[in-house]
Amino acid sequence: MSLTRVRAFLVLGVLMVSALVVVIVAVTKDTQNGPVADACKGAVLVNVTLPRGTSDVTVKVLNGTGRPGLAAALTQDMKNRGFTTQKPAESKKRFTGVALVQYGPKGLSSAWLIQAFFLNESKSEYDPKRTDATVNLVVGTLYRQLATPTEVNQSLSILGSPVVPPGACAAPHDQLQAAK
Length: 180
Prior knowledge:
Order of helices and strands: HEEHEEEHEEHEH
Number of helices: 5
Oligomer: single chain
Number of domains: 2
Number of strands: 8
């Protein structure tokens, strides 16, 4: 056996022993005390699975401006886009932005979709105590119109997956199916 071959086997052996030591240290020094699901104990479970379409989203439009009939017009526009809508109403507070999307744990993914219809310029407000999946949409003074389908798709690609709010955990897919 040549010296080059012996040196190669020696280097390979040292690398294998080093890798084995790293694996053993990583396993023995692991600080996780239980399964990953235990990390969500006591946290609010939120729906992060995007709806299959707008018909799976229920929205209630509230007029946060002084313009009369704006909530009714936006409700009709949302209905024309396939959303399930509730009767529009007036907001108790005025809103100066484009829109305020208010939702609870069951409405996170629906709110995420609605934000795309406002080109990601809406503000969101999460309430962990809400029990329904309905999304309240307070339309503000800077609102002009809903995005086109192409713009919605582009906005969704920019938004990515729904972000889990602080103090919450993503609900496993099987629990979402059981809740339906």
